[in-house]
Amino acid sequence: MQKTNEKGRLRALLPIGVFLVIFLGSGIVTGNFDSMPAIVGFLIALFVAFIQNRKLGFQKKMQIVAKGIGDENIITMCLIFLCAGGFSGAVTAAGGVDSTVNFGLSILPSNIAVVGLFVIGCFISVSMGTSMGTIAALAPIAVGISEKTGFSMAICIGAVVCGAMFGDNLSMISDTTIAAVKTQGCEMKDKFKANFLIVLPAAIVTIVIFFLITRNGSFEITQSLDYSLWKILPYILVLAGALIGINVFLVLIGGTVLSVIVGVATGSMAMGEIFTVIGDGVKGMYDITVISIVVACIVSLVKEYGGIQFILYVIKSKIKGSKGGELGIAGLALLVDMCTANNTVAIVIAGPIAKEVSEEFKIPPKCSASLLDIFTSVGQGLIPYGAQLLSAASLTKLTPFEIMPYLYYPILMGVSALCFILLKKSK
């Protein structure tokens, strides 16, 4: 183990550097950042980590890797990913998404249609735990509102992306939230409360901005907006249960069971489809689960070689006190997300480093988890090569750069978080 006063070794970070170079390089060369699956890049990085440091034998490195994978937080995180996937598959098949969207459109006045897109996006993303799913659900509605109100498509889809990013770092079943909580070792409810207080001002200001620039528009709903409050109930149960502090496994399993009951009772789901829809949801989380395991292998070797210690030494030499530590975590999270274009992967990579920083500067785990989640979402909501903006652009036939001027919420979220760091009283 490295002593706390040692500088660590820069070369120990080579595997992470290799991943960033080949991942970003392939995206730049091909013009498509999905051209190389992240797992391939991480496997190459793991190979590089294994051939480093010849002083350690292969068997010893395997022991280090196995210990890293077997960490309680890594195992728990992976199991929660799979449970969250099962719930998502069941509640979607039961009609929860459609009912939530239609319910929101039914109760909001038509003259605040664009504001409504943001608010509904906030609720759906918190409920579903996926920004991508929120964008996919609301993009067609944004197109219709743009056509009928005369507002530009970019404003309408911008409101959708803003709403999607709201829940991306708040939802109890979001893979980013799960990763942030487990890597920092805090309770889900504590992180939610701390996170919510930071981003609430940004959400309020975003609502005001969208209202001011679209207050003269209206949207006449002609299609049927059928919804069932029963289908929305599983989302409410999961949110309430997590806030109360019920074990996250029990909350997700309970939500899955209730979704199945509601789906079968309302005719949205056949008895024979129960296990299929849950299985499909679980499969949707395979990628991030495997990536988390491989990244845990890489980080365990990088830490053993002194890479984590080097980063800590650099951070400690540049910043002082808890505020400096929090700014370091924020900058680290934003930088890694901009490099990986995936906020969950960014949290898995930056999480162990942020944990060391938080312990060094006595930063509460709920704060470090919130900062990780917030600043990776800030990056993910703004980079033109991220999945969220690419998806929104493809669904509306716009370019990411046309949407970016209306992404008020990610910018304000970052500003709000920085104000929280700089203006709060030092302990």
Structure write-up:
Mean pLDDT is 84; it is low at 1-5. Helix 5 runs antiparallel to helix 6, helix 6 packs antiparallel against helix 10 (188-214) and helix 14 (286-305) packs parallel to helix 17 (343-360). The two termini are 31 Å apart. This protein has one domain. It is mainly alpha-helical and 427 residues long. The chain has 21 helices and no strands. 76% of the residues lie in helices and 0% in strands.
Topology:
Layout: H1 14-30, H2 38-51, H3 58-69, H4 72-93, H5 96-107, H6 113-128, H7 131-149, H8 153-168, H9 175-184, H10 188-214, H11 229-244, H12 248-265, H13 274-283, H14 286-305, H15 307-318, H16 321-340, H17 343-360, H18 365-380, H19 387-396, H20 400-403, H21 408-423
Key terms for this structure?
mainly alpha; 427 residues; 21 helices
The rough form would be described as globular
Number of DSSP helices?
21
Mean pLDDT: 84
Distance between the termini: 31 Å
User: Helical amount among residues, as a percent range?
Assistant: over 70%
Q: Which sheet architecture does the biggest sheet show?
A: none
Order of helices and strands: HHHHHHHHHHHHHHHHHHHHH
- What percentage of amino acids are in beta strands? under 5%
Rounded to an integer in angstroms, the radius of gyration calculated over CA atoms is 22 Å
Low-confidence stretches: 1-5
Give me the count of strands: 0
Structural class: mainly alpha
Quickly count the domains.
1
